[in-house]
Design brief:
Layout (H helix, E strand, L loop, with lengths): L13 H10 L30 H14 L3 H17 L9
Pfam family, one: CopG_antitoxin
InterPro entries: CopG_antitoxin
Protein name: BrnA antitoxin family protein
Length: 96
């Protein structure tokens, strides 16, 4: 008889996720909704400075907070996602 998996709890920050993973038996949870993640291992070598309307910056900070990441990382995630969509899914090399 198959045991029903528990749903994953909503984890609002990296700290909460770290604590959950350290204590929980992940075999008891439904992991079918998980997606592969890209982890950055290349050093950052370029700097981007930009001026934004205050309202836009505050909106970015608020959205980043709901995802539990610093707003600068969230902006980089948006840029990476958009660049990936420009490459398509055919395995094209990164845009230079």
């Amino acid at each position: 008889m198959k045991v029903k998996s528990k749903p994953m709890p909503s984890l609002r920050s990296d700290v909460a996720a770290d604590e959950f993973v350290a204590k929980a038996d992940l075999l008891l949870y439904d992991l079918s909704g998980f997606k592969p993640m890209h982890f950055e291992i290349e050093p950052k070598t370029a700097v981007l400075n930009m001026r934004l309307p205050t309202q836009l910056l505050e909106a970015l900070k608020a959205k980043a907070k709901t995802k539990g990441v610093p707003y600068t990382r969230y902006v980089r995630m948006l840029l990476e996602s958009d660049a990936a969509s420009l490459r398509g899914t055919s395995g094209d090399p990164p845009i230079k």
